[in-house]
Design goal:
The structure is a single chain. The chain is of the alpha+beta class and 606 residues long. The strands form four sheets. Strands 12-14-13-15-16-17 form a six-stranded mixed beta sheet, with helices on both faces. A five-stranded antiparallel beta sheet has the order 1-2-3-4-5. It has a four-stranded antiparallel beta sheet with strand order 6-9-10-11, covered by helices on one side. Helix 3 crosses helix 4, helix 16 (370-381) runs parallel beside helix 18 and helix 20 (466-480) crosses helix 21 (482-491). The protein is globular.
């Protein structure tokens, strides 16, 4: 990646209003030449955080966090230094100059810039059409009168309407100097299946919701059809060079400040839910791009929030999405809560009346820990009318209780579970101590004969092999860059993976490269866990060179396994494999000598 010139960095520092930047995360009050407030980096009751606008620095006397505006943006938004500089330069209108840059990297950056400009232009066109065209009257009526959304908040989110004509964006885009390839790459048009070589607008006759990243840049659209016959009801932008559904939260650009100040994020499902809640003052609200929340989305929220309230639909899909969030979150510092949404109502509907608005606020305030919700969901689905049904419910509940750790909440839930199952609390506690296993009716010794032991020694978790680590890293990089990795799925096969679960992840990625978790349910828990572990692997952004290096490692491993057991191979094939193995070894050594492919593999999914 190219570096900014020192002059650029200095101009960014000079232009940035550090008080404005910091005020998005904590309230500041003037005290002489500096501003003071509660530290946004640690919990405190007495202000020890200080900002000196004249010097452009902040410092906390409690946790000793300090730096300039660039450093602050890095820490609070989880950005690398170049991204933080670029974000501030864009915000304050500073022209960016770079030192010598790799031509391919420069071209890729410029292309992403062009796609972003095209998306911004189209968002402005759709917004203008909604409010100015008579052909959008039905859409305005639906939004304002039927959904109860105010014009001011709709305009603040840039809501628009796509004309019904098949080539409005196609024609306007080309007139503005964008190529068909660029409009395709931005997800604004699509190819005609009937007439190869022809193209038409992707969104037509639909209400449009521009999706922005946390820096406020348009990266895609969600579009709602008008009328009961519109299929699909919602049409979204495809995955692209600038849009990744799994890394995006609708409304994050407007919600990140309120989230940071309050320490809480509210997650809903729909675009109109976000808009309705913002309009009612619940400005810490964002929406997932679908029903599932991803590790990347939780990581993004973790940069601003201490707790996340899931206010998803009360149907089975919404509930499964919340339970999946528990696995996705792992042991991170985010506290996940669930608001018990009434079935058949969404937040936007509730906000249309004062009674519904008050009820929704109460539900958010009364949100319970996700583990508590999980336990109650299991008990709610179980047949508790007979002893076998209660036994099955206990089998399901105990692992959730064990995962809660030693807390007062768990003690209360043990009592609640015992009460619901008409059992003694000691029975539930005893089952938890045994790891959830029912005591055997006739326990038999499992130690060696004559050793006096009645239990087998605890099994150690097997450490992944080096091959499995390499396989895991390849899959993690493929998930990070589905477009770049498409060609590698043609070169990879099941025989490149020694781990059965990683082989299953590979097959899943090959079928669902954009969103491997999409459509998975409770029965796929092992596969979901493996995918989410890989999504959480820490590595640099994937490049084609990284992928090529990782592929060579897997291909070398595959050849090694084949050459160790060459039975059935023709002599000519054996010689060819040995030559290919030697060529790969030389190529890998060359790459390693240049310091490429140095990402540290995370643990293989097991």
């Amino acid at each position: 990646m190219s570096r900014f010139t020192p002059e650029t960095i200095e101009r960014v520092r000079d232009a940035t209003d550090i008080v404005e930047i910091v005020s998005a995360y904590t309230d500041l009050r003037r005290q002489g030449e500096r501003f003071v407030g509660l530290c946004p980096f640690h919990d405190e009751r007495t202000p020890s955080f200080s900002v000196k606008p004249r010097d452009g620095f902040y410092y906390c006397f409690g946790c000793e966090a300090g730096g300039d505006a660039i450093r602050f943006v890095q820490e609070k938004e989880g950005l690398a230094f170049p991204d933080a500089v670029e974000a501030l330069a864009e915000r304050y209108g500073v022209e960016v100059e770079r030192e010598t840059e790799d031509p391919k990297a420069e071209e890729a950056r410029r292309r992403r810039g062009r796609l972003g400009e095209a998306l911004e232009r189209v968002a402005a066109f759709y917004e203008s059409f909604l409010w100015e065209s008579p052909k959008a009257r039905k859409a305005r009526t639906y939004l304002i009168e039927e959904r109860g959304l105010g014009e001011e908040v709709l305009r603040s989110f840039g809501v628009g309407f796509a004309p019904s004509a098949w080539d409005s964006v196609l024609t306007r885009g080309q007139q503005a100097g964008y190529s068909v390839d660029e409009l395709l790459a931005a997800g604004l048009i699509q190819r005609s299946q009937r007439n190869p070589g022809s193209h038409y607008d992707r969104f037509r006759g639909r209400i449009t919701f521009p999706v922005r990243d946390h820096r406020g840049r348009v990266v895609g659209f969600g579009a709602r059809g008008m009328g009961p016959d519109a299929k699909p009801k919602y049409l979204n932008s495809p995955e692209s060079e600038v849009y990744r559904k799994s890394r995006t939260l609708y409304g994050i650009d407007r919600a990140r400040g309120p989230i940071a100040r309050g320490g809480r994020a509210v997650v809903v499902e729909g675009y109109t839910d976000v808009i309705a809640l913002h309009g009612a003052g619940v400005e810490e609200t964002v929406a997932v791009m679908g029903t599932a929340i991803t590790p990347e989305q939780l990581k993004l929220l973790g940069g601003y929030a201490e707790e996340v309230v899931l206010a998803l639909d009360a149907d089975r899909a919404g509930r499964e999405a919340m339970l999946r969030a528990q696995r996705v979150a792992g042991s991170g510092r985010l506290r996940l809560l669930v608001a018990a949404m009434p079935e058949g109502e969404d937040p936007a509907d509730m906000m249309q009346s004062e009674e519904g608005s008050n009820r929704l606020r109460e539900l958010l305030a009364d949100a319970v820990d996700l583990a508590v919700f999980h336990v109650r969901a299991i008990l709610g689905d179980a047949d508790l009318s007979n002893p076998p049904g209660r036994d099955r419910a206990l089998d399901e509940v105990v692992p959730v209780l064990v995962g809660m750790g030693e807390t007062i909440t768990r003690q209360e839930m043990v009592r609640e579970v015992a009460d619901r199952l008409d059992a003694a609390p000691e029975l539930v506690a005893g089952r938890m101590k045994s790891g959830g296993r029912r005591p055997a009716a006739r326990p038999e010794p499992v130690g060696r004969v004559g050793d006096g032991q009645s239990q087998a020694p605890p099994r150690r978790r097997r450490e992944p092999t080096q091959e499995e680590r390499r396989e895991a890293m390849m899959l993690a990089l493929c998930m990070d860059a589905p477009d770049l990795s498409a060609s590698y799925f043609e070169r990879l096969g099941p025989d490149h993976f020694t781990s059965p679960i990683l082989r299953a992840v590979f097959e899943r990625l090959r079928e669902h490269p954009a969103d491997p978790l999409d459509g998975l349910g409770e029965s796929d828990s092992a596969l979901i866990n493996a995918i989410t572990k890989l999504q959480a692997v820490d590595h640099e952004p994937a490049t084609r060179e990284d992928l090529e290096f990782r592929w060579m490692l897997l291909e070398r491993d595959r050849l090694d396994r084949t050459l160790r057991h060459p039975e059935g191979l023709e002599p000519a094939d054996l010689v060819a494999m040995q030559k290919e193995r030697g060529r790969l070894a030389d190529a890998i050594s060359s790459v390693e000598a240049r310091g490429i492919g140095g990402a540290v593999p995370g643990p293989a999914a097991r």
